[in-house]
Every structure is written in C-alpha cells, then in structure tokens.
Amino acid sequence: MIYYLLIAFQAFCIFHIYKSRNDYYWYFIVFFVPVIGALVYFFLEIVSSRNISNANDKIRNSLNPGKKIKDLKEKLKFADSFQNKSNLADAYRENKNYPEAILFYEKALESNVHQDKHTLNKLAKCYFELKNYKKVVECADQIDLDKFFKGTICIYAISLEKCGFNDKAEIEFKKTNIRYSNYPERLEFARFLVRQENKDDAKNTLDVIISEIDNMIETNKKKYKYIYKESVKLLEQV
C-alpha cells in the first residue's frame, strides 16, 4: 500500500513539474532519486512557492488595501455571484468598513436561497461592531450557534441583554462558562452578573478565573494578563 502511495506522490510531482513548466532538471531529481527527490521538490517548489505567494499578497494588500477591493469589484461586475459578493464583503470587513460589508453580505444572502449560515454569522459580527444589537439577534437566531459558531455566543448574549432579554442572555452566557477556557467570554459573563446584581455568582466566576490564571505557566499568565487584571479589579468592586 505504501509503495503505491509513493508512486502516486512521485507521479503528482512530475505532473506538477510539467504543468508549472519548472526547470527540466527536476524531472531527473524526482524520477531518479525516488521519494527523497519528490519530497525535495514538494517542499521547495510547491509548499514554499505557495507561502511566498500568500506572503506577497498580504504585503500588497497591506500597502494598498484599496486594490483588493477594486479587484473584487471588477470580479463582481464580471460575475454577479453569491461568492463574489461575499468575497467583496469580506474585504470590506477586513478594512473595518462595516457598513459596506453589511451591504454586500445582505446582497449575497438575497441571492442565496438557503441563507448561508457562515454569511449570517459574519453579518452578525459586523452589526455588533456598529452596536446594532437588534440585528445581531435577528441574524444569530437564524443559525445554530451551539453547533457551528460557539465563538459568536458571547456577542449574541451581550446583544440579547442590550435588547432587554436578560434571562435569555444569561442562558447564552452560561454556555461560555467552561473551566480553563473562554477567559474573555467568562469575564464578560461576570460583568453581566454584576449588572444583574447577582454578586455571589459574579464573585465565584471571578475567583475561578483568577485561580486558574494564577496556576498557569508564565507564558500563559502573560497571555491572559489583561483578563487577570480586569478580573481582580472587578472583584474588588463587587
């Protein structure tokens, strides 16, 4: 079985040399130095070239962020598809232009019969940045956050509270209250409990957060330094 996989891998590399029109000497290396030659080609010509290409794209986009949006607009003019609208919305979101991102996410959803859950999730996050909490709730209610987007549960809970649904907000916040994880979300939960005048549960949540961070290795302590300081400060105020 392994023998056939190695032959297939070697054939793939040879095909890539032909397709990419790489230097002719690679044929000899891959063919006459089995396995090692193919591995060398794979890492030098396939993996490295992709990484360099991605790095170059990131550099170009950081130096000229408008170029990516301009290019995506041209693609959208050429093909008015769901994917092109979504890609343009993503680019606006990367540039923190949330109103334009929302516009194209909504246009994308208009052309998508099944109301794509990933687009709805990104749309909810954009609305949250603009403090349009009612819209966050509307978007989040259409997707299964527990199954697909646990990272959005906290902003959903905050939005529910802002809209006056405190009981439902507490249910959602509790889903994030998991030991040894979700520290920013658990801090938000503690703040919520303080606002709800549930001081005992707030103190307990903060005590656990502080205790867990106290027992971390130094690297993780530095990582959660802000959470630790804010938790101690809030505990002193409760």
From TrEMBL:
It comes from Polaribacter dokdonensis DSW-5. Keywords: Membrane, Transmembrane, Transmembrane helix. The chain crosses the membrane at residues 24-44. It comes from the Bacteria. This is TPR repeat-containing protein. InterPro entries: TPR-like_helical_dom_sf, TPR_rpt, UCP030959_TPR_rpt-cont. The lineage of its organism: Bacteria, Pseudomonadati, Bacteroidota, Flavobacteriia, Flavobacteriales.
